[in-house]
């Protein structure tokens, strides 16, 4: 069997605590299914930045290029501005490797309390456009220090970029319940969002077997809370997809269980798998972070590498561990540690 080469970047804060649990579960899956996984560790982080002035070495992207996948914890830490950790590592990786589809599944796990009164049927995937849109470098400040000071930020929506993310959403919907919802805001954002809507209609016509609808982002967030069961695949721009996936993770019970994949669908480059959550400095170093988001990100990685059976087995092991409240970490209302929960999931495998 082919050995998959995995670049492991634990990063900062709880990234260093949950990645070892993710690897422990991947190893258990590899043993059970006879998979070959070879890891190489990279200690790139805000600490690296403090020592060297860079989040990763100048040839960092070239070194990652050779891998089959990247397994990332979280980057970002107090004292280092967010834009340094984001633009010094995460965003260059996503862009260089054309990981334009950010896939964030959200579902209800048994044994977990959702803050919603009626979470019935919550089982959706947010597809976020990952390399263009609102998160652009174009813009700046004018007349600094004067009364007329102003800041401008441009959004960029290319036909290539919009069409390919929409197609990714429709293709995924065909493997699920065949419904795509588009997040828009064409009543307030009058250039880019009407364009997005126009392309959504054009791509939808290529998929007559998939039903569609669209909502403005403001009311869409309300529906996520009030009627989450009505959604299957939800596709949004970089900003809207970001917001929806954090919200989705929260309504599922805790952000500590939400995995994500930054996919290069053409498989020309490595894809990257990381939890939705960040480095959580408020709980870092205490050994109480929930490792499930990292572990499920590992399941998504195995799925992407062609091992759907192993991915499903990890999900089942997570479900069985969640059935035991003694294994819940504090974010789930319990008292278990990161390592206890990780070991139980690996054991269940
Ligand atoms: P980022 O900007 O990287 O997305 P953030 O500022 O949104 O980060 P997070 O680091 O995701 O913040 O943390 C948000 C809150 O969720 C914090 O209170 C944190 O403790 C909690 N949290 C995040 N991840 C976990 C986890 N795995 N287990 C338990 N609590 C978590
Ligand atoms: Mg966040």
How is this fold's topology laid out?
Blueprint: E1 3-11, H1 15-33, E2 36-41, H2 46-52, H3 60-64, E3 69-74, H4 82-96, E4 101-107, E5 123-129, E6 139-142, E7 150-153, H5 159-174, E8 179-184, H6 192-204, E9 211-216, H7 217-226, E10 233-236, H8 238-251, E11 259-263, E12 271-275, H9 292-304, H10 308-322, H11 338-348
Parallel strand pairs: 1-2, 1-3, 3-12, 5-10, 8-9, 8-10
Antiparallel strand pairs: 4-5, 4-11, 6-7, 11-12
Bound molecules: adenosine-5'-triphosphate and magnesium ion (MG).
Magnesium ion binds at residues 246, 278.
Describe this structure in words.
This protein is α/β, with parallel strands linked by helices. The chain has 2 domains: 1-99 and 258-349, Isopropylmalate Dehydrogenase, CATH 3.40.718; 114-252, Isopropylmalate Dehydrogenase (3-Layer(aba) Sandwich), CATH 3.40.718. It is built from 11 helices and 12 strands. A 10-stranded mixed beta sheet has the order 2-1-3-12-11-4-5-10-8-9, with helices on both faces. Strands 6-7 form a two-stranded antiparallel sheet. The radius of gyration is 20 Å and the shape is globular. The two termini are 20 Å apart. The model has no long low-confidence stretch (mean pLDDT 95). The chain binds adenosine-5'-triphosphate and magnesium ion. Magnesium ion binds next to loops. It catalyses: (R)-malate + NAD(+) = pyruvate + CO2 + NADH.
